[in-house]
Fold each of these.
Amino acid sequence: MSTPVIQVRDLRKAYGDLQAVAGVSFEVADGEVFGMLGPNGAGKTTTVEILEGLRIRDSGGVSVLGMDPATSGRDFKRLVGVQLQQVALYPRLRVHEVISLFGSFYEQQAETEELIALMGLEDRRNARIAELSGGQAQRLSVALAVVNMPRLVFLDEPSTGMDPQARRNLWDIIEGFKAKGMTVVLTTHYMEEAERLCDRVAVMDHGRVIALDSPSALVRENFAEDAIEFVSNDGLSEHDLGKLAAVTSAASQGSAHSVFSSDIPRTMGSLLDLAQARGAPLEGMRVRHATLEDVFLKLTGRTLRD
Amino acid sequence: MNAFLPLFRTNYRDFVRDRTALFWTIAFPVLFIGIFGIVLGRGDDGASYEVGLVIEDQSPQAATLGEVLAGFEALALTQGQRDAEIASLADGERRAVVVIPQGFGASVAAGTPQPLQVHFDPSQQTTQQVVIPVLLRAFEVADRALTQTRPVVTADFRTLQSERLQVIDFIMPGLIAMSVMNGGVFGAIAMVSLRERRVLRRLSATPLPAWALVGADVAFRMVVVLLQTVLLVILAVLIGGVSVKVENLPALAGVTMLGGLAFVAIGFFLGAFAKTEQGFFPVAQVITFPMLFLSGIFFPLDTMPDWIRPLVSAMPLTYLGDAMRQLMVGGAPVHSMALNLGVLTAFLVVFFGLAVRLFKYE
């Protein structure tokens, strides 16, 4: 086992009365894609910005690449790549001009044209930043995060504002980073993104890590079963559904119901019987595996988008 | 790894592609100079002012003085009797009346010159600023014509010793000082905008040192302010017909830089308090606008009431305007050049120090 790239121990940070990070501990291994999943305000960004050296922690131990980001200054910043949320770059500069500018801050810099190609921005090379779509601007900001060819890169909600196609392109790019041996720390509130990309995921809520494991292990630990999903506008309560054959748990949000079952055919049979007896319609019924979204709902009682 | 030049180039690109910035830094001062130049500038025919001449002495010296006065194109001379000319002055048909009293020639010959009498209406600004200086100049010329050794022609007034001949010469250096102020203070908006759009925060995540960021910005502002001044001086000469003291141009460039740095420092200081561009603008306006009217840019300081003097003395533009006027057209000093430069340096040091202390990446 090599030394972890990041070690965080009992990290705390408050803004006035708000305890944004309330005792977080984790480690990130070399070459890992590490996800931080949680709704807005869960403390993901604050945690990541402390690791980037942009915020000063109140207490706790932090070691990133063997350094303390709070005190290592420029030596530290040379080695990591950072993507921040909501940065509106120079609107009148062109894509290639911004990449060259950021490259000039580092001794070791990636080739501008290679980076443009890697991000699929070739046809936007000479476009002004103000003319980029949300997804293109987001890809540019990811490009800037790797302009110094860092060993460790932080991406803070990189797929925000992207359409599904752009998001998939970005996932390919991030998988490319991993293939090159880079360590990636990624925050997101898209569980699909975390499931697809991350070796391990820290699920955060209210400034704490409430679960930490690989996506599949998280699902397995929390759900030994698959789910039947359907919409029924009346007559069926969570309580009724929980009593069906082979059901382990049931969750209802309005007229949308999820029934977790250890034996799908048996549960399905008794669900159909119940629906028929009650005269309740079953619409859009499908069977699926449990996801991180279900894990989050189970652990916090809330959905990720809340 | 040197990020200074790329940052400087970025500032340049950001600036030349920003039409609003271009308008305020180039087109607006050019319009200003153009309008003042056309309204106040010397045309080919030259504005001339009605001046009455009363010769009560029949000596050759009096005749020489009369010829010298007649030689000044800016003066439209009418010779007449004292009572009639004074009456014309009262009616507003004359700007001033010069009386060469009886015995003038004899007194010059005797070496105990007798003062001329100059009647004028002190409430008229043009007379104060233009006619009186022209007369003084004429008297100097007459002096030299009458004797090489010592002044024999003196007048009852000696307060105005300026070489300036026209309002335009007074206004133009002030307008240029104004544009240096605006270029400096409003130039800081670029940094406020970077902070507002979180670019500064993004830059703080790179190893870019703060001095390179600030240095490239200040250097670029200085280049803009300097080019602006060069352009405006040229326009002042071409459109306004201002006679610029060419030998002082290097010093004028130096004062432009010093003033520009002082106002950039003030802009950075104000920018430290502004969260957004929208928030910066009114604050900068409140600081710069009173200076336009109270630091002797458009109105001479000696026309201002005493109670406002302390405020005038606290304004950096007062000193920049005075320094530029002295250097550019040889205007009458309000303060010594040393005081002007000292005050501007003090503003630069104090506000740059404060700006550095208050600087925030977000």
Note: The longest helix of chain B spans residues 210-238.
Amino acid sequence: MDIKPILSSLRRSPTGAILVALQIALALAIVVNSLFIIVQRMEQISRDPGIDVANTFFVGFQASSERFQGEVTMREDLQILRSLPGVQAATVVNAVPLSGGGSATSVYTEQNEKGRRGDMNYFQVDEQGLETFGAKLVEGRNFDATIVTMPPKNSSTSPSGILITRDVARDLFPDGSALGKTVYTGTNQPVTILGIIDHMHGSWPGWDKVGNVALFPVITDETYARYMVRARPGQRDAMMKLAEEALGKVDNGRVILRVRSLEYVAASTYAKDRAMALYLTVVVALLLGISALGIFGLAAFNVSTRTKQIGTRRAVGARRTDILQYFLAENWLITTVGVVLGCVLALVLGYWLSTAFELPRLKLYYLVFGVVGLWLVSLAAAFRPARRASMVSPAIATRTV
Amino acid sequence: MFAYDLRLALDSMKRHPGLSALMVLAIALGIAVCTVTFTIYHAMATNPIPDKSSQLYAVTLDTWSAERPYDDDKPDLPPQLLTYRDATYLYGAKAAPRSVVMYKSGALLLPERNGVKPFNAQLRVTSHEFFPMFDVPFQYGQGWDAAADAGPQPVVVLNHETNAKVFGGENSVGRTLKLGKIEYRVVGVLQPWAPSPKFFDLNNGSFEDPEDAYIPYGWGKALEMPVYGNTNCWKPESGDTYQDFLNSECIWLQFWAELPTIADRDRYQAFIDNYARSQKAAGRMPRKLNNVLYDVGQWLDRNDVVQKDNRVLIGIALLFLGVCLVNVVGLLLAKFLNAAPLTGLRRALGASRRDIIRQHMTEVLLIGLTGGVLGILLAVGGLAGIRAIYGSDFTRGSYERLTEIDPVVVLVTLALSLLAGAIAGLYPSWRIGRTAPAVYLKTQ
């Protein structure tokens, strides 16, 4: 295959080819970077939260009269919830995982904020907290009802023993087991690590330490309290209705404000990431579509205006495959120039996105996807016009105009 | 003459219907994607209080720990919230013509109307300047005065929606309602009011609706009302009472000052710096002196109200428009150059170069306007789709406002498309115009 005639023809009228190459280059830059962002967001959304999201819901309530007696009333309500037929476990919590709202604190391996520091997003739960979340304990034991306490309002007293996730354990004791060790709060209160949780996400999925979670054996202050309930598999919706009914029947000085599934909470937390991924997917699809159509349109147009030359070539001995090859090779050449330029543009765009918006740096292998993808799209778009060119009859050459 | 050009343009479009449709589609998609993206961006980036945005200042003091900055990502900036003791001092000093101290809280609202379920009302616990400072519009009654803050007196201002829910939208001034344990008397009802972004308190989401009701600041301490926004602490301090919390280095209060002139602002800056120096002398505020006054625009920037995602999308949308325009230019150019013999014939028959340019421009205009109209239709459809998917209650606010298409964006993208088309049309006009008409006659 001789490439010379293609080059000389391109040199004579380069404008169209340059525009196609430019279009491919821009498209590649956008597609590669969009794809990168889409994949990242999808990975973020599909991470395992370590919680039984599908079967868990929470009940928001608030004290409404003097009949509400803090811990006593909350334990009464828990009793009601736990006695429902499809409920596996229930607890009082201070915050809902994955919701964006919660509390965090730090502990240290030595007193006076010395030694290694462990940041943790803590949840105040009772002895059923672990089972309600559906988190798995890998070392130690869950706390029992006897150490669950309710400190007075505004108290800064810490619990004597807590459960932490492996992530926190690794921050505190990178070289050995954290089980049974004592750590210290900022106010030098000793805390024993009773158990290690395999993995669990806390309140803030956007936090880079989202897996740094601790469970405290504490009945939380009523101001922030809500009930967290885990239904048996498949019974969540029925239990949500039943829970609202059952709690509504008892008037112990609180009103039920809302009953909501954890699935809903997670969906709303990730709604923005999902929107971004969807939006970019649509943009990429439109972009590939419009690029393909543009290449197709221009190629078809060129073929139709060159009908006479094609006929002449055929008349002087060119085979159909020669014509087909000629047009495909021309397209390949233009596409390749576009793709090479596009790689440079993609890297520039990726660099800009990572510095201006603190997004992760573009991974280079995404370029491969983009290059192969655009090559295929471009080839597919040019194929039909090229085939039509190869069908031109040599007799055309003998006709005038 | 225009009718003739139009007929030529239509003829030319009809000769290559597929190509013409493709150009219209490319322009339409470019305009639609840009319009949708900019509409979302504008919904998030509008100035919530244009008349006063350069007179209202969020006041910040760096009271954080010597060991580490408040925000590792922005280590040079002070925290956005104040401690109780600092806010109390600044408010009491009255160094600004007006200032307001406040935070978000909540309490159970027990309506007296039958059929309305009790609900957890979101409350703003605020000093009385809130209403005049932020130009809050009243439908009935008015706010309260300094005495009500200090008392505190059991008075409440309801927003429009709460008044509709609890009192059926009547003039409820003088009526009472129970919030938590206290019976409050309604002194004012607001008109519908929801500045977006909710610039005066961005803690619970930039596009959250304002609170259901407003109560005097003094109630915060008197009732030990919970903080619904963020409370951040750095100093290990033991404490078991609410008073310990108030005395702590924990930050949780919003503080704004109204400073009408630059001189006022400079004076206020000097005042807070002096205060911080006195605190440093007393052993507090271990970090270097860093107290910043932010006007509304700066405040929205500092808090990243327009999410990075939206800026990224703007960049991508503009590049997308670029692809569409390159596409259109390529197709137009091919088409005009292909029609050169025909155009040359017109020249030979006496058409001037200006006639040719006008003919090309008419076709560009026709394609551009058709693309523009289609683009607007696509954008309207796209925005409706986005609202349908994301307008549910969990993204309350931010997507609901996406009803208004920004005409500026449509016009600018359309102008860009026409400009690109014009370049694509001028070049062949110029080339054909330069060639002697006889050449085209010969090739025929």
Note: Chain B touches chain A through 57 residues (CB under 8 Å).
